[in-house]
Amino acid sequence: MQPAPVFYLDIRVRDAFAGGVAVPQAAVRAQNGGTVVNGQTDAVGDVILRVPNAGPWTVEVNKDWFVPEPAGPVGGPVALAPNAIQVVAVNLEELQYFLRVDGDRDGNLDNQHEGAPALDQVPVWAWGPAPARGAILLFNNDDDDRNPAGPPHGPNVGVEDCNDAVVNPANDATHELAPLRIHRQGPATAPSVAADWRARLEVLANHGRIRIFQAAAAGVAVAAGDAQVAGAGIANGGGLPPGAVEIPLRHAGPVSFPTWDFAMEATSYAMSPTAPGFDGVLTIRLVVSKVPHAGGARIQYFTGAEVRVAPWMMPHHADNADTVYVANMGTNLAFRQELAGVGLGPDAGSPLHQAACALVQHPAPGIPADIWLQDCLEIGNATVPHAGGSHQLRSVMRTQRDLGNGGLGPYPRTLMRRDFGYHFPTGGGGAENTYDAGGNIEVTPPVRDKGGKLWRWGRIYHGPGDLAAGPPQPFNAQVDAFLQAQAVQSPFVFDTSWLEVGHVDEVLSFVPVAAGADLYKRWRLLVASPKRAYEILAGGPVAGTTPLNPAVDALLTGRRGGGTRAFPGGAHLQTNVTAFLANAATTIPAPMPPPPPFGPPPPTVFLNGQYLRAWNLNFVQPKINAALKQVEAAIDIDLANDVIHVPVIFRPASLAHSEALALTADMPNMLVVNGHCLVPRPFGPVDGGGIDLFEQELRNTLGALPGVTIHFIEDWYEYHLSDGEVHCGTNTGRTPAVAPGGGEWWHFAP
Amino acid sequence: MNEKTIEELFTEATRSVDDAYVARERAQRDRGAAALPHLREEAAHAADPFVRFMAKTLGAWIAGEEGADNDAATALLDSLPARFAPTPVREPKPTTTEQDLTHLYAGRLTRYLALRLVKEPAWPRWRREAALRYLIRHPDPACLPALARWAGDPARTDLDRPFIDYALDAIRAKDSQAVTDALAEETRFQQSQEGTKR
Prior knowledge:
heterodimer; A: mainly beta; Immunoglobulin-like; L-arginine/glycine Amidinotransferase, Chain A; 6-stranded mixed β-sheet; 5-stranded mixed β-sheet; 11% helix; B: mainly alpha; 2 domains
């Protein structure tokens, strides 16, 4: 008997969108009336079905995330022949959704999916040049639209752009928001079953630290993140995780399964007051789900991206300065004119003009006037990728000072404008002490550490506070955590608790030099040195001067212990070298009022000259030496060749003589702008030719280095007698120079 | 004009704080030895442990045992804000202030500062902290009624708390039982006052 004929169907399932690649594991179903034959495509996308007759048979193919659902054969009916294999082509098109960001950090949205092809995992943000990946967000804390903050702020105080729920005008959309796209891969037109598809865009944690806008265009509202605003086609709340929105992936009309562009901004740096545990990295997930056509369980996958908030970075003395800030107090006019000339232009020839810096004067508020511009703020920067390079936002940090908004406390926020942001790492909570001031937060030029690690943007340094006395009086822990969290300029500390003011700028300063083969040694460290000062007083030679005649030559020439430059008051401090060193009383400014009932405090006290010398050499100098050791432990420094010991004599600043202040002006407490060093005039010993040996010593050492110009600035009555100097009374806006060897902060793991 | 009696002044002093307290304290001290019998009576028999401490401290002050130091220290502390306001420090450093008080007065200010800490709650933070640092440096069990009252005061800020704990720990290291007893007595007294209020 003739065997019954059999018929074969070779179902070849291919992905037309992907160029005809095989689609394995697709479910295939052939049906003829009540007879059904099932199969599944193999690794090459084929399955051969054996059917009992010539049909007609209807073929359907299904696979999750592929459309149309179900798919039928391409073309018209095919005729089956007995004992033959009939090829049937079926085209599916993968329809999936992926996230795209600027993962390669070139300033443009990537063409590749973030995290694909591996689904259900989020790639870790990676430091380094390509192929390291991970998008970067800007803490959008400038004020492009100049919208007023209202009370209690003043009329010129605005709202940070990240603290409103829309994309702001100016360069918000073009420069300060990072792109995010939900990218659709699949056909242009969706089948009706796509109505079952959903996508949820979510921020896994710290959703308050990011805003995701519906598009990068001015006025567009927030879609996800910190403040959710429902928009067309977007739902939020309703049981979704905080910070998440659900987006239907099929819209009415001819355009379905839209690819959707979003824009992201950060609402804080790492370790903000409202997110104390936030390390600066956010995880964004796109969760895609659908109900299969045949019903049943909801199935889903996710893809995602980690993004990092650009760190706040402090510029160093080698960075390009463009603006110098100073308090405008009537009695410091002469000081300001020394900086910028009589007209305060800055006038041609003035130090600031030579340094190509503008002068910004702010009225000194309060009684007594707060003149300490260095202490109330730190001006830093944040840099993000931008097409063709990078975009930089200058960003002022309010320091933990004047929490009651007296003095210069409110001033930093008034600096906020377009491309000039504002932040306050503590938000004003907690206590304040002198160690929290900006004069106690500085940064080195590019250095390497003992392990050879390169710090291309330098390292921040600060005094840790007074940790020895009973309960500690520390540098603010929140600010410390904030600085640590920025990572790329990891701070180190050295002890300043022995100083009355307690700021690092009283002891040392880094000055850049223009030459040197080692790009990480293009600086000298200037350190206050009582030892060097007393060596000079003892007759140690200073090139360019005549030997001192101790019985005649004076120091503190013309100085008095109080009053103003126009109306000096208090005791005359000028003395000759012999008298200053004698075992007899010498006159110095009073460290503090003597205890009652001995009458009203005079502006001066008397101290034995030999005692003062011994106190300088046995109390102050060891403290400075110890500080240098702490610096040496943190960076690669040759104490013999990289350090310039600057003559400074200190005086006791407390009744217990446990703290120090500069007696001669503290020359390392200088303003350094574009190679110009504006140094407080020390009023050290003067030789017979009228040359100040302390000044000449600095000219011989620092002034001899390439690229350095020294200007001596008198600040005796304006700042020195109030326990500060030039650096304490000024601040600087700078644009970071290119790091040694080039590259951006994200190219190098900290 | 009817002059207030010592008893009235003392009672008002127990109920007042800040400038009002200082004025009544001054008025009692101005009475000199005439104030001593009542102060001794209060020091021996007042139900409130802090009132007993206050009476003892005022009595010793009036008796001349430590008055000059107290007056001088007050004047010094009052003068410091003007000294530091024009400087970068802006206000006196508590650590330095404590060091200078110790330098000038060794440990002789403990009861005065403990009394004023409780009776002058409007002291600025630097002054509170300097006084507490002084009490930590010079642990004095005689001050326990004041520290116990301070420790139980809900108005004390979180910034003050660590210093109170340090001060109590410093005394505990010398006389642990005294601290336990003082805190227990303060608790009993406060509970008795709660009963009175009800």
